[in-house]
Amino acid sequence: MNDALKHFGYDDYPEGHHGIWANDETLPEKLAAIPEVLNQFFKGKTRIIFNYDTDFPQAVIQVLPEQKGGSMVRLNNGNLEVIIDAARVRAAKEKLSTPEVQRTFGDALKECGRVPVAICVAATIIKRRDRLRAQTVRWAEAVLKLWTKNPDSAYIDDNLHPTRIEEYAGAFMRLTTEEA
Prior knowledge:
- The protein is α+β, with helices and mostly antiparallel strands.
- About 45% of the residues lie in helices and about 15% in strands.
- The chain has eight helices and five strands, in the order H-E-H-E-E-E-E-H-H-H-H-H-H.
- Helix 3 packs antiparallel against helix 4.
- It is elongated.
């Protein structure tokens, strides 16, 4: 077991997601990112336990989501790793695989979550990349860095012209794009 866990009194690895962060100048930046991470990846009530000692070189953070399933974040040696529930991606794919996708898109976001829907949209964009704008393809490539499975498993079979995805998912892509 890690020395930091022992220092803060853990007998075993803590439940939920945990991370061991260096107690250095990067600590305030990591702490400041917590609300954004929670809003992006966790739904419902979430408890955070932060173990800190000014005289110890590491800190321990625990994230305990109340709700199971969905997209989660694992804090691994201070790095945030996204854990994506494949069942939610499949559910999003099913919900979006209809010619009525423009009508069902908002419901899919509410029911399945932003990350699974983004993965489905991105997988579909990659399959249709030769017919779409470069900016759209760059967005999809960035999203698919989170998804380690075959993108075909998330492809939206909407039976629409390939460019229609830029219409029905355009606002969503703009909302989830950081401008440089």
